[in-house]
């Protein structure tokens, strides 16, 4: 019951300086090696922590699905005597999955707190970046661009319009060709 979480594929062979670092306390929650000095943690970006958090959420979903599969396969004891060892084995698996889920949720909480700590100095909060349903959309601040950027934007938009027009012509030609082929096939019968 003291087994640690399996490592992600591709991380086992990585040198220690390239292996992902977790926030303080996350390694001890998983029973892995201790954390590097605080200076090494400053080099980790919030994006990297979010990626680790995403993998953790995927692990949580996988473990939860396994729990549901185990409980679905378990028969209710409605008078039928089954092997006590089988029930104990399933109960042990469920307990282990629940313990691992608790560790994963702790890891996720530590990652979240570390990301919030690292991004506290950002100008915009998450509520401003992703609007909630029903909230009024605030106007987007657009900084004035140089004339070269505006000219390049106009050129790109014109190229996109031309390509769209070419695609429309090709789609019309394909539609007419298919129409003719279908008409010939029906006349053949």
TrEMBL record:
Belongs to the Mediator complex subunit 30 family. GO terms for molecular function: transcription coregulator activity. It is found in: Nucleus. InterPro entries: Mediator_Med30_met. Residues 1-16, 24-33 have a biased composition (Low complexity). Residues 1-38 are annotated as: Disordered. The keyword Nucleus applies. Keywords: Activator, Nucleus, Transcription, Transcription regulation. Component of the Mediator complex, a coactivator involved in the regulated transcription of nearly all RNA polymerase II-dependent genes. Mediator functions as a bridge to convey information from gene-specific regulatory proteins to the basal RNA polymerase II transcription machinery. Mediator is recruited to promoters by direct interactions with regulatory proteins and serves as a scaffold for the assembly of a functional preinitiation complex with RNA polymerase II and the general transcription factors. One of its GO terms (cellular component) is mediator complex. This is Mediator of RNA polymerase II transcription subunit 30. GO terms for biological process: positive regulation of DNA-templated transcription. The gene is zgc:114119. The keyword Transcription applies. PANTHER family: MEDIATOR OF RNA POLYMERASE II TRANSCRIPTION SUBUNIT 30.
């Amino acid at each position: 019951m003291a087994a640690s979480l399996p490592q992600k594929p591709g991380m086992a062979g990585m040198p220690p300086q390239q292996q992902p670092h977790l926030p303080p306390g996350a390694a001890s929650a998983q029973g892995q090696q201790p954390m590097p000095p605080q200076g090494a943690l400053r080099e980790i970006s919030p994006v990297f922590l979010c990626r680790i958090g995403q993998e953790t959420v995927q692990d949580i979903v996988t473990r939860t699905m396994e729990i549901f599969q185990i409980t679905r396969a378990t028969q209710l004891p409605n008078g039928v005597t089954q092997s006590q060892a089988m029930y104990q084995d399933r109960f042990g698996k469920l307990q282990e999955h629940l313990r691992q889920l608790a560790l994963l949720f702790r890891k996720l909480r530590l990652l979240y707190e570390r990301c919030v700590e690292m991004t506290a100095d950002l100008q915009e909060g998450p509520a401003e970046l992703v609007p909630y349903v029903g909230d009024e959309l605030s106007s987007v601040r657009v900084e004035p661009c140089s004339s070269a950027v505006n000219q390049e934007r106009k050129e790109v938009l014109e190229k996109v319009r031309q390509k769209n027009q070419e695609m429309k012509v090709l789609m019309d030609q394909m539609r007419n060709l298919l129409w003719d082929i279908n008409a010939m096939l029906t006349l053949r019968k």
